[in-house]
Amino acid sequence: MALKAPLVYETKHHLSYYECDATGHPSLSMLISMAVQVSEEHGNSLGLDTATIQSYGGGWVITSYEGSFAARQPINGEEVILGTRAIANNRFFALREFWIQSADRQVEYVRLTGLFVYMNLQTRHLMSIPQAVIEPYHGPEKKRLPRLAKARELQDVRFKNDYHVRFFDIDSNHHVNNARYFDWMQEIRWGQNF
């Protein structure tokens, strides 16, 4: 069987006011949510909607991100291109790349890599990724995947706040949606000056 190149999926997205913060730019959590959205749309286009993925007993969980953000970010009302592709996978992990670009492709606002695992929805433990769930993406299978950079430990913590998980922080996999962590981080930073 000939190895197929990883499938690239892109879609246009019009930024709405509810995706932007008080500065008129999308918040960090919204940029992450847009990346997850294009990933979900990619899966849907391959016949891998949430119900299909969960029918195998598990669901995708993103365990870490690595990426870069341009100094200039899109603004409310702007049309952007959301894109994703599979980078590599093995029995337990899958790497995906995400990007957010200006509609004319002149500016790359965001470039992210996400590390995914397939979590058993009953036991809440890692499980092997079913072939039917991973094959349609045509990502290269590799024995060892590159490690994503770890976040640096903060040395000068000026503000600290304990957060209680709220019902609407929980997603369909029954855990805190990854984007909420970015809201919490930024709330500490910006909340002090609001």
Could you walk me through the main structural features you see in this protein, from its secondary elements to its overall organization?
- This protein has 194 residues and is an alpha+beta fold.
- The protein is built from four helices and five strands; from the N terminus they run E-H-H-E-E-E-E-H-H.
- Helix 1 packs antiparallel against helix 4.
- The chain is globular, with a radius of gyration of 18 Å.
- It starts with 7 loop residues before the first strand and ends with a helix.
For the largest beta-sheet, the strand count, sense and barrel status come to: 5 strands, antiparallel
Total DSSP E strands: 5
Q: What percent of residues adopt helix (DSSP H or I)? A: 10-25%
Number of helices: 4
Distance between the termini: 58 Å
Average pLDDT rating: 86
Please supply descriptive tags for the structure shown above:
194 residues; alpha+beta; 5-stranded antiparallel beta sheet; 4 helices; 5 strands; 21% helix; 27% strand
Secondary structure elements and their pairing?
Layout: E1 8-14, H1 28-45, H2 50-54, E2 58-69, E3 79-89, E4 93-102, E5 108-120, H3 131-134, H4 178-191
Antiparallel strand pairs: 1-3, 2-5, 3-4, 4-5
Question: TL;DR?
Answer:
This protein is of the alpha+beta class and 194 residues long.
